[in-house]
Amino acid sequence: MLNLWYKNAVIYCVDVETFQDSDGDGIGDFKGLTGRLDHIEALGATCIWLLPFYPSPNRDNGYDVADYYNVDPRYGTLGDFVEFTHAAHERGLRVLVDLVVNHSSIDHPWFQASRAGDPKYRDWYVWRKDKPEDAEKGVIFPGVQKTTWTRDTKRKEYYFHRFYEHQADLNIASPEVREEIERIMGFWLALGVSGFRMDAVPFMLEDLSSAHSGWEPHRYLSQLQTFLSWRRAEAILLAEANIPMDEAGDYFGTGDRLHVIFNFPLNQQMFLAFARGEAGPVSDFLKALPEIPAIAQWATFLRNHDEIDLGRLETQEKEEVFAAFGPDEDMQLYDRGLRRRLAPMLGGDERRLAMAFSVMLALPGTPVIWYGDEIGMGEDLSLPERHSVRTPMQWSAAENGAFSSARAKDCVRPVVAKGPFAFPHVNVARQKLDPLSLLSQVRRLIRARREAREIGWARPEVLKAGDGSVLALVSRWRGGGVLTLHNLADRPALAHLPEGLPFAAMSPLLRQGVHIDAKERTLRLDAYGFEWFRFEDGSGTRDEDEG
Ligand code: NOJ
Predict the structure, then answer these.
(1) pTM for this entry
(2) CB distance 163 to ligand 1 below 6 Å
(3) C-alpha to C-alpha distance for 84 and 37, rounded to whole angstroms
(4) How confident is the model at residue 104 (pLDDT cuts 50, 70, 90)?
């Protein structure tokens, strides 16, 4: 039987730079992270995704790589990386690293050689003699980024950059570049990682090359999967691909392309549903969810290290989410997103936060958690762009939240020190001891999700529960079933269970503010109440692999 570990993984995303500093220089490092594995293990995560930690001029939080085969000396050495993965494995935690090969930093020696006309690297990037007419279209960071083609003074040509002008797009159409990408993957796989979070996949597959080489962009994903599985059987590709659902087939193939894709559209519907206090946006989305191959998977998330991208909502819907969660202009970004953390958006209301986590964990897919959200950290809007949500982890009430022993002004970014989300109140040490804290709730929720393996495999059935604020889902797999009910509204709601479900034989897995009338098959959910049940399911199929 195949071990599709990622179907029921719980992924915790860490930025080494802001997690834990071990040597007092104000910058997080691998030794510090290794020393904090207890927290990740106790949370119940099973896999760690590391944001880029490679040598980099760091003009885009490390997504501007200057050397793919090393660790930035600010975070430690390759030796420290291996010690970290070893320690993670000892605790049963897998490690994924970011693969950022749509572009490199313009400081990368490859780009420097390319602009100098070195024949080996001449075609490693995408060059044009004249500035294309559509150069101002398709910028990813409107308001900050002006163009996608910039003139290089040395080569006297224009290079393409989908993102910032310091991130030149690699020419993936070149066979040498594709070979190098495999070399990079092979390198990190040999150091023990279980796969890659692949950056900007749809942009990687855009073919802007002038000399075509018979390269077929989406099929290239199959080649990568084949390469990966020969090198390390369990390795996966977890793709950042903000795609409409009808393109899923191109990216998953028959199960021979990407293993996991972040479900960005679902994330947007979730925030619309939270804003309205209505289940409709999520229920409707799930009813239309495409069938995907059994080995493929969605990744679900509440927040990540970027803005919440609401670009796939209708204008009116986007305005509703802005009004509910980020009404000030300063909270919004790139005309499409919110640069806030989860906890402040939900008013710091722990019941609402627990409900939000619970909904995310009940949705089809593998959950991914952004560090700090498990304790309800806040943002710092005085920091530029997306840095607002990238402040240091808050470990305790000690200086700098125990992130670093450096002077506060020497920390890589300030720890949130003012307001209701400041480190003296919001920190791991404080919440660890309190069984009612958000951290304790999130730990319990993750435990339940790990028990409820049906959720990782099933395409859930959406039930009509009566009240429009209640999201009711049934996930069935291999003879087991899980029923989850969530009240998204700030007022109580009644839910009625349909006859088909074996209500009397269901055992509760989780509960927050729910009162059950078994005779009437009715649940009364308090504001933001939720309930998870398990049951034996006669209709389950037995033809899938164990996860
Ligand atoms: C997506 C990453 O998530 C984001 O942080 C980065 O700025 C862009 N890719 C460019 O690499």
Answers:
(1) 0.97
(2) yes
(3) 9
(4) very high
Per the structure block, which two tokens stand in for 450?
């790990």
**What is the distance between the alpha carbons of residues 410 and 24, in angstroms, rounded to a whole number?**
9
Q: Domain end: 424, 449, 474, which one?
A: 449
| Statement: residue 542 has pLDDT above 50 | no
At residue 208, the pLDDT reads: 78
Residue 294 dihedral angles phi and psi, to the nearest 5°: -60, -30
pLDDT band at 539 (very low <50, low <70, confident <90, very high): low
Asked if 355 and 431 sit in the same domain, the reply is yes
CA distance 510 to 486: 11
Domain limits for position 131 = 103-171
Residue with tokens 């904090």: 36
pLDDT of residue 498: 87
Q: How far is the CA of 202 from the centre of ligand 1 (A)?
A: 12
State which ligand 1 atom lies nearest to the alpha carbon of 163.
Answer: 10
Q: Report the domain count for the chain.
A: 3
Q: How is residue 500 written in tokens?
A: 């088909």
Whether residue 68 contacts residue 128, with contact meaning beta carbons closer than 8 Å, is answered with no
Active-site amino acid positions? 199, 240
Number of helices and strands in the chain (H, E): 17, 22
